[in-house]
Amino acid sequence: DAGVIQSPRHEVTEMGQEVTLRCKPISGHDYLFWYRQTMMRGLELLIYFNNNVPIDDSGMPEDRFSAKMPNASFSTLKIQPSEPRDSAVYFCASRSTLFQNEQFFGPGTRLTVL
Amino acid sequence: AQKITQTQPGMFVQEKEAVTLDCTYDTSDPSYGLFWYKQPSSGEMIFLIYQGSYDQQNATEGRYSLNFQKARKSANLVISASQLGDSAMYFCAMREDSSYKLIFGSGTRLLVRP
Description:
The structure holds 2 protein chains of 2 kinds. By secondary structure, chain A is mainly beta.
């Protein structure tokens, strides 16, 4: 299995631009999570999906952030408009209900907003 | 309220020696899981070990073991026979089974000296 796939790996953009981060979970996994990692706040859960349905988006910082999961193999996290304080590493993770002991992370997308 | 506490921002250990990374947690949920992840300088999050709240025995995975003391609400990671490649950030995390969310501690940076 290829593991959780994220793209792009690095993104540099200017303030005000729209940013879209992409994630492909491990095949067969029914939970998908988006996290953000910063020096100041550590690893924060932004939102998670179960069977493509958003379950908890209480960690989404503000309305500029949105996430979708149109099918079991694809999810996006969109920031519009982006701001410098959004600069962080964004991780996608997935796991299966059948194997709740493990949650696998993607390699992350390092976002820099100038 | 802080749910996961890692009190050691940084630690050193001599190669081939054992090291214990501390983690305490707080929850009122009777059913939960505790996780440890390793984050090397390359940035990916690597799952190391899992302990369920009802597990009678401490979890072990190769050189990693989890010293689970339920009454004290601690879940320390023990790495035996440290290797240079163990130098990384280590994160403790907890998932309350009522919420499915993985909450992370602030991490401990481990440096293995040759």
